[in-house]
Amino acid sequence: MSQPPLVQPSLTPQFCFNEKVLRGFLRVSRSTIDDSITQNLNALITPSRAGFDPSSTGERQTSPPGRRPIDLAACNNFRDKVLFPSWQSRSDILNYCAGVATSPDPDDPDQVLREVESAKDRERIINERLDPYSARFFPRESRTESLANLVRNERGVETIIRARTWGLVGERCADSGQSWEEALNRWRDQQER
Predict the structure, then answer these.
(1) The whole model's pTM is what?
(2) What's the average model confidence in pLDDT over 116-144?
(3) DSSP letters spanning the chain
(4) CB count, 10 Å around CB of 68?
(5) C-alpha to C-alpha distance for 156 and 147, rounded to whole angstroms
(6) Which residue would you say has higher pLDDT here, 122 or 14?
(7) Are 141 and 108 in contact (CB under 8 A)?
(8) From the CB of residue 44, how many other CB atoms can be counted at a distance below 10 Å?
(9) Worst-scoring range by mean pLDDT, 28-32, 57-61, 140-144?
(10) Exposure of 51 by Cβ count < 10 A (0-12 exposed, 13-18 middle, 19+ buried)?
(11) Whole-number Å distance between alpha carbons of 125 and 176
(12) What is the C-alpha to C-alpha distance for residues 87 and 34, in angstroms, rounded to an integer?
């Protein structure tokens, strides 16, 4: 079967502000579970119980052999022990980092530089007739703004990846008719009990 979910890193503002580390964790978590969902689901299929039937090669098989339905208990175990914990871990990290992004950042190393640029911009004399581009001013983005944009983008990626993964799980396992959001919320409710 597939590996258990990654260990969630310790959540600190430094973890969130280090975009390389944050993106790296999300990338590894996604590649371990979601990007290899077909292989993870194939690992749930019990090997043949009846043994090899030589007559099975006498006629063409129209359905791909890997698309056999998977045992419901194995599917539920995979969803509850591997897939949903992985999704929850990523959700927890993105929610924490979203909270960091909306909080004031007293340790922002570029704060003084932005204030100086802002003061210089207020002092500039703008003559658009001589230089039509002189009115342009692109202030630097603060760490929290940059983090907020990253979290927003990663949440969009999560939505797309989870929809794709859930579609494949629904294809291979008995489809419960629930969306991935409903199934994940139901699992969260069960975890709280």
Answers:
(1) 0.73
(2) 66
(3) -PPPPPPPPP--HHHHH-HHHHHHHHHHHHHHTTTTHHHHHHTTSPPPSS---GGGGSS---S-GGGPPPPHHHHHHHIIIIIHHHHHHHHHHHHHHHHHHHS--TT-TTHHHHHHHHHHHHH----TTT-TTTT---PPPPHHHHHHHHHHHHHHHHHHHHHHHHHHHHHHS---S--HHHHHHHHHHHHH-
(4) 12
(5) 14
(6) 14
(7) no
(8) 18
(9) 57-61
(10) exposed
(11) 65
(12) 9
Distance CA 166, CA 37 (A): 9
Structure tokens at 48: 């043949």
Q: How confident is the model at residue 70 (pLDDT cuts 50, 70, 90)?
A: confident
Q: 111 pLDDT exceeds 70?
A: no
- State the pLDDT at residue 1: 47
Closest residue by Cα to residue 154 from 14, 7, 26: 26
Check: CB of residue 108 under 8 Å from CB of residue 48.
no
pLDDT (mean) for 86-108 = 87
User: If you average pLDDT over every residue of the chain, what do you get?
Assistant: 80
Q: Is the pLDDT of residue 191 over 50?
A: yes
Per the CB < 8 A criterion, the answer to whether 173 and 187 are in contact is: no
